[in-house]
Amino acid sequence: MPAIVANATRDRLRIAIQKSGRLAEPARSLLAACGLSWRESRDRLFCYGESLPVDLLLVRDDDIPGLIADGVCDYGIVGRNELDEQANARLELGLAPAYREVRALGFGGCRLMLAIPETWEWEGAQQLQGLRIATSYPAILRQWLGARGVDAAVVELSGSVEIAPKLGTADLICDLVSSGATLRANQLKPVETLLESQAVLAGPVHGFNDARADLSAMLLRRMDGVLKLKDSKLLMFRAAPDTVPALTRLLVDAEPLVQLPGEHAEGISLQTMCHTAISWQQLEELERAGARGLMVLSVERSLA
Ligand code: PRT
Ligand code: ZN
Q1: pTM of the entire structure?
Q2: C-beta 23 within 6 A of ligand 1
Q3: Where does the record place the ATP phosphoribosyltransferase catalytic domain (predicted)?
């Protein structure tokens, strides 16, 4: 693995991603879809970028914000929960922001929630006065409690937060929830959302003044293309011109219809990009409204 020099002028970009865990595979797939490929090192912690001078560092997610703050990595793919927690912790210490959320990536979705024993009635934040709350996100929780003028004890735990009420080490918890199964299995119920989270691309507060500037712009442009196309389909059909207003009303999540050259017995040829999935039912409604020869096509790549 090459020597890792922080804050020096560099001509390669370095991106930190989770080595293993929930975000590891989707992060790699996203970067691969942006045209990046790598040669893995034997220690499997550093991947040398082959198609472009963009290298990967495989680390624990907790380390990603700090690696960007220290200038060791330029970007990182990490949960917003982790990024905001460490940003709030820096704020508590009076430190300036050292990274920012550059893009939301649309995977790893979850919520940071307060959860109370199922037998309790939820009466609002004031009910928490004097109670003990177990969490791995103490800085976000303290900020939330402070904003509501609630004085509660924050019990910091690094894992197994959901069993704290059973063990008697806390009265309630503040933890990440996705399906809610873990809470139910521990006789807890979610009552308040502190943060809507998902995986994000985190980057430096200031831009680059070396070769990384162009590389970074190219990577972001490709990433925007990939993210935009994720659920996008190209819809093509023919229709009589007088049916176009009714058809447009049915295409709620689509870009404006574009007329293609040429005329057919069934009218004009039209196409549009739809940014949400198109169901069979929607196609049938379009057909009833006058669309003919409907075709839904996958879009591989686009530079908008
Ligand atoms: O080893 P490393 O430190 O890198 O990994 P980690 O164990 O700290 O993180 P990992 O891989 O578990 O999670 C990485 C990121 O995935 C988190 O920071 C979140 O941004 C995101 N994510 C999405 C989740 C969940 N969903 C999730 N459900 N992270 C954790 N959970 C846990 C939660 O803490 C609880 O224990 O899953 C349980 C709840 O799940 P449900 O489905 O039962 O509600
Ligand atoms: Zn972690």
Answers
A1: 0.88
A2: yes
A3: 60-213
